From TrEMBL:
Main subcellular location of this protein, as a coarse class: membrane
Residue ranges of the TM segments: 50-72, 156-176, 221-243, 255-276, 288-306, 369-392
Transport listed as a keyword: yes
Taxonomic lineage from the root: Bacteria, Bacillati, Bacillota, Bacilli, Bacillales
Iron-sulfur among keywords: no
UniProt name for this protein: MFS transporter
Record keywords: Cell membrane, Membrane, Transmembrane, Transmembrane helix, Transport
Membrane-related topology note: Multi-pass membrane protein
Length: 408
């Protein structure tokens, strides 16, 4: 019973335990893929140009299908949807691993990346929307903190292990481990059963999408922050995910880059532990201030500071990212009615992620015109400023979900 004590201490349910275990296994596998795939693609001819397009091939269909995925998650069983999407993701990731291990044509990765993106569009709204069905409302923040704890731990181990595997064996094995983790996660998720079936809606599918959009656009505090993250994510992904490995290849190498990603996860881990007990009086204000620290590593990367400095600021950014993520998800999950939650979360994801493919595709062309380090530095400055802009709205600065009632 010792391994269940943390769930008992936090008054979290048995079904949440299995959900947590399934998520943890999947997260540990997925944390290996960014490093493994990036350096596998960079080995081929024109790899630095191809990398951004492959990443965009997964993100773009994900974004386009998010609203449909969110509506389906509100209409049908979220637990079954998660299990099926895990199985599908495992198959597509295994296909990518086989292509990389066999030294196949990297262009054959594109259709599998597209499949991954589509499956993710069904997974994300269901995963975020199922939490209020697994735990009581008062325990939502603790549940999110615990999930962030496993996410942080996976990002410590995954990138470092992936960097080592890339240096010794190449990138394919890390992707194969990710594929297996999806299959294992699906087994754990088979023990997760939400308490009831959704009420079968008599309205049309398009009416439900419009209903979710109406709720989203009428909440100024939601769309202001979503809009800010649209630009933040484009900068973050373009600089950190695309230019980062390219800059690292010529400076700190794959091992150093893997270590950097792992150190960021140390900050995520520390903050997740703190957030198990810490209460944010004004979660949206605190979340935006915290996430602004994420721009500092981009500046340090661009200015070419030594690895130890990059590791320090990356760890601090990890702390800020965790505080922001938990504060934002908890506020949304407490504020939005369950029967609209996945749809509204899908519109949040759609707005925040829709610019990511632009960042992925434009990062290298801009870097070749203005210089890799210049683009990284300017990107970091933009990141910080945009994160703080929503704080000009008083309702965001002063919002306290524990004291306010949100309309349905």
């Amino acid at each position: 019973m010792r391994n269940q004590s943390i769930f008992n201490t936090l008054s979290l349910s048995e079904k949440f335990k299995w959900f947590f275990l399934g998520q943890t296994v999947s997260l540990f596998g997925s944390a290996m893929t960014p490093v493994s795939l990036a350096f596998a693609i960079l080995k081929v001819k024109q790899g630095q140009h191809l990398l951004g397009y492959i990443l965009a091939a997964a993100v773009l269909p994900n974004i386009l299908m998010l609203v449909i995925g969110g509506s389906i998650a509100d209409r049908y069983r979220r637990d079954k949807l998660i299990r099926l999407s895990n199985l599908g993701s495992g198959c597509s990731q295994m296909g990518i691993a086989i292509i990389v291990l066999a030294g196949g044509n990297p262009y054959t990765i594109f259709p599998l990346a597209i499949i991954n993106g589509i499956l993710g569009a069904f997974t994300s709204p269901a995963m975020r929307g199922i939490i209020p069905e697994l735990v009581e409302r008062k325990h939502i923040k603790q549940a999110n903190s615990l999930l962030n704890l496993s996410r942080s731990a996976s990002k410590i181990v995954g990138p470092a292990l992936a960097g080592t595997l890339v240096a010794i064996f190449g990138g394919g094995w890390g992707i194969a481990i990710d594929a297996v983790s999806f299959f294992i996660a699906s087994i754990f998720m088979s023990r997760v059963h939400i308490p009831s079936h959704p009420v079968v809606s008599k309205t049309s599918f398009m009416h439900e999408i419009r209903e979710g959009w109406s709720y989203f656009r009428k909440r100024r505090w939601i769309w202001l922050i979503t809009g800010a993250f649209a630009l933040i994510n484009a900068v973050q992904i373009g600089v950190w995910q695309v230019l980062g490995p390219i800059i690292a290849k010529n400076t700190i190498g794959s091992t150093g880059w893997g270590l950097t990603l792992s150190i960021k996860a140390v900050g995520l881990l520390i903050a997740s532990l703190v957030m198990l007990k810490l209460q944010l009086r004004y979660p949206l204000r605190d979340s935006l201030i915290a996430v602004a620290f994420g721009g500092i590593p981009l500046i340090v990367l661009g200015q070419g500071f030594a690895l130890p400095y990059l590791l320090i600021v990356t760890a601090i950014a990890g702390v800020g990212q965790t505080i922001s993520g938990i504060g934002w998800d908890t506020t949304l999950q407490q504020a939005i009615p369950r029967n609209k939650l996945s749809r509204v979360l899908a519109f949040d994801d759609l707005g925040a992620f829709i610019t990511i493919p632009i960042g992925q595709v434009m990062a290298v062309p801009l870097a070749e015109i203005f210089g890799y380090k210049m683009v990284a530095t300017i990107g970091g400055i933009i990141f910080i400023l945009v994160a703080l802009i929503p704080l000009l709205d008083r309702s965001i600065r002063k919002m306290n979900p524990e004291k306010e009632r949100f309309s349905s």
